[in-house]
Write a structure and sequence with these properties.
The chain is built from 14 helices and no strands. It is globular, with a radius of gyration of 19 Å. The longest helix has 18 residues. α2 packs parallel to α4. With 257 residues, the protein is an all-alpha fold.
Amino acid sequence: VVNDEMLARLPDRLRIEVVQNALVSLLWCKPEHPRLPELEARTRALLQTCADVDQRTTCHVYLCLYYCWCGMYPKVRASLEALRSALRDSRLELPMMAAAKAMECLALWRVEADFDRSLLEAERALELCTESGVHLWDTNFIGQAAGAALSKGDLETAGVMLERMRERLPQSRWLDVAQYRTFASWHARARGEMPLAHEHAKGALETFTAMGMAWGIALAHAGCALTLDRDDPEAERHAVLALQEARRQQSAENEFV
């Protein structure tokens, strides 16, 4: 994954970028890789000597994501505090500030279950995107808000967020499309519209599979299982595949789901 001899010859700034990007790339595409814990430890070690506020913030964002994946929630909270501290630093660039806000929103939703605050932070992240002129993550932020609204049972707010996502789909990345289909399935299922929910769940699975995004594939199989009758053999097949994928990927969070 990382050539140690080559890494040692790199300048400090580039060395940090290589390690942190290797960490997040494996986490998204090959989370079962045996060197992921090593990359997490390296990222933490590099934080001790890194003076650049943007690089430090990036490290904390990626570590927070890794700890969410592994179900290490006390470490998520510690990384979240570091991110909040970074957000108070006037030297932090606006795009990086938006990324930190997005991670805060995710942790508030999935770890702290503070859904109202998660919705608020998602809107603040979008304001930062507008201020910076960088809109790469807009749909992702709106999706996190949709997830928080669905988690608290606020179908009206979730519907508004999903419409905001849908309007952006023609210019969106595959990740945004898959995320939209995932939340749209959840929303339809909550309204009792099971055929529509299953259609969206299948669309999410197809998109995550085309991307090769491991965690999305596991969750999409679970979504497909939940939108079918319990006695349907396809429901059991999707449920088994979801559990197998989560265990293969060594994700405590996905296995719990």
